[in-house]
Design a protein that fits this description.
alpha/beta; Purple Acid Phosphatase, chain A, domain 2; 23% strand; six-stranded mixed β-sheet; 7 helices
Length: 244
C-alpha cells in the first residue's frame, strides 16, 4: 500500500538577504522535507518585502524563485498566497517560481476535509489602524500608482512602511494584534467548513471551537525567525512540526 499523500503549509518566513538564518532553514526544508509532499502551500509573508515583479532581476529574489521552481520540477504542487509583506507578488513571479497564486481566503479540500486557507491579517479586526492600512494598500488604484514609481522609490517606501509598522507594534497591546474570535467564527460559518489554517500572528497553535453546532479547529502557522516550522496535513489530520 502506498503512503497517503500529504500537504505542507508554511508562512511568515520573511525572507531577506539581511536575515540569513530563515534562508538557510528554507533551503533545508526544500531539500529534506518538502519533496515528500504532494503539495506545498505558502500562506503569505514569504518575503520580508516584495515591491513588484520587476525585482525578479535581483539575485536574491531570483535564487529564491529558482529554489521554488526546483521543488515544483520534482512534481510537488506549489501554491502561494500573498500576505501583508508580499501582496504585490504577481503573475511574473508565479511563472518564474512555477507556482499557482491563491486568493485570500480560499477554500480547498484537503484529503476529504473542506478547509479554509488565509494569511490571517484580515482577522485581526481589533487593530483598526492596521485594517485601515490594509484596505489602502490592497486597493487596485493604490497598487497601480505604487508600481508606477521607480524601483528605488518603491524600495525606500517599503522600508519606511516597515519601520512605521514596527514602531506602531511597540505601542499596541499584544491581544490587539491577534485575531478577533468573532471574526474567525463568522468566516467559518460563512464557508461552512470545520478547519481554518492561517499565519500572520506568529502564534503557532491548534485552537478548538464550536461554530453553529460544529466542532471546528484553527491552525496557526509559526514564523521562521529562530526555527523552521510547518504544518503537515494528511488523511489522519494535521500536526505542527519545527526543526532547528
Amino acid at each position: 500500500m502506498s503512503e497517503p499523500s500529504i500537504s505542507l503549509f508554511i508562512s511568515d518566513l520573511h525572507l531577506t538577504p539581511e536575515r540569513p538564518l530563515p534562508v538557510r532553514l528554507f533551503d533545508r526544508f526544500i531539500k529534506e522535507i518538502a519533496p515528500g509532499a504532494q503539495a506545498l502551500y505558502i500562506l503569505g509573508d514569504f518575503f520580508e518585502a516584495w515591491v513588484g515583479d520587476d525585482t525578479l532581476d535581483q539575485p536574491f529574489n531570483r535564487a529564491i524563485c529558482d529554489t521554488l521552481k526546483s521543488l515544483a520540477s520534482t512534481g510537488v504542487e506549489v501554491f502561494f498566497m500573498p500576505g501583508n509583506r508580499d501582496f504585490l507578488a504577481g503573475t511574473k513571479f508565479a511563472r518564474a517560481a512555477k507556482l499557482t497564486l491563491l486568493a485570500d481566503p480560499v477554500e480547498v479540500t484537503l484529503h476529504g476535509t473542506p478547509t479554509l486557507l488565509a494569511h490571517g491579517d484580515q482577522f485581526c479586526t481589533d487593530d483598526t489602524d492596521y485594517q485601515a492600512f490594509r484596505r489602502l494598500v490592497r486597493d487596485p488604484e493604490w497598487q497601480r500608482q505604487f508600481l508606477a514609481q521607480p524601483l528605488p522609490q518603491r524600495l525606500a517606501l517599503a522600508n519606511s512602511l516597515r519601520e512605521r509598522s514596527e514602531h506602531a507594534k511597540a505601542d499596541k497591546k499584544p491581544e490587539i494584534m491577534d485575531v478577533n474570535p468573532a471574526s474567525i467564527e463568522a468566516i467559518l460559518a460563512r464557508h461552512a467548513v470545520r478547519r481554518i489554517i492561517h499565519g500572520h500572528t506568529h502564534r503557532p497553535a491548534r485552537h478548538e471551537l464550536q461554530v453553529d453546532g460544529r466542532s471546528c479547529e484553527r491552525w496557526v502557522l509559526p514564523d521562521w525567525y529562530e526555527t523552521g516550522g510547518y504544518l503537515t496535513c494528511d488523511a489522519s489530520g494535521c500536526r505542527l512540526s519545527t526543526f532547528p
